[in-house]
Amino acid sequence: MWNELKKTNPKAIDYLEKCGKENETDGNEQWKPERWAQTYDGGYRWRIMTSNGSESLNSRYKAERRLPVVGLVEGTWYKTVKWFNERKQITLARQAEGERWPKEIQLKLMKHTRKAAAINVITVDIERGEFEAQLPFEKNDPGVTWKYQVFLKRDYQPRDPQLPSMCAWCKCRKPQLTGIPCLHVVAVCDHCRWDVSDFVDERYSTENMVKIWSTCDFHCYEDEDKWPRYDGL
Ligand SMILES: [Zn+2]
């Protein structure tokens, strides 16, 4: 696409090469595509292309939005408390059941497992963990075989001890960007008889979800006459 753009709109290329630099006239300064292209952001936005997450709050606060500031703050407070408690209960129940992953992750992996049966997996190099997942056809291109290169290692030793010891890489980029195994990785796992849930990013674990929803320490707030004195505007 970059090459296409070069032919049709060289000015846009000039602009993008300077975009994000500290000093755009400095020819020696490296270009910084991670500042404007999601492809290069290292998965920071987790493949989310929209701001729907924050937009949805607008509709949630539709009624409170018409109230004075105090009412708006109070409404936000009660809703936040409600959401945190609901989610805390769900994740605690999940933890009590001994489930390693939240339901959403489990359902996604089950959906992939059903579809993965149609994929042909070729072991290219087991030691290097290189595989090829071949799809007989895709919806828009019947008769065309799609090939995905997959790297999957169970005994991967990351240099950074904070990183998971499992490594899943696919040409479709979904595991790298979302931390969840794609259809092709699931197919390779089925082929090798490995547990695909070992390749889910640890950040999604039930244990971490419990930590997230238990961090907030909410307490009822006192009546106005008990508030600390304030002398400002
Ligand atoms: Zn894939």
Description:
The structure is a single chain. The chain is of the alpha+beta class and 233 residues long. Among the domains are: 2-40, no CATH class; 103-207, no CATH class. Helix content is 39%, strand content 10%. It has eight helices and four strands; from the N terminus they run αααααββββααα. It has a four-stranded antiparallel sheet with strand order 1-2-3-4. Helix 1 (2-8) crosses helix 2 and helix 4 (69-96) runs antiparallel to helix 8. The longest helix has 28 residues, at 69-96. The model has no long low-confidence stretch (mean pLDDT 85). It binds zinc ion. The site of zinc ion (ZN) has 7 residues, from helix 7.
Q: What value does the Rg take, in angstroms?
A: 24 Å
Q: Distance between the terminal alpha carbons, to the nearest Å?
A: 55 Å
What's the arrangement of strands in the largest beta sheet? 1-2-3-4
Order of helices and strands: HHHHHEEEEHHH
Give the helix/strand class: alpha+beta
Shape: extended
Which band does the percent of strand residues land in?
Answer: 5-15%
The low-confidence runs, each spanning 5 or more residues with pLDDT under 50, are: none
Largest sheet: 4 strands, antiparallel
Specify the helix fraction band.
Answer: 25-40%
> pLDDT average, as an integer?
85
- Give the number of DSSP strands: 4
Catalogue the ligands.
Answer: zinc ion
Domain SWIM-type: 148-193
Keywords: Metal-binding, Zinc, Zinc-finger
GO molecular function, one term: zinc ion binding
InterPro entries: Znf_PMZ, Znf_SWIM
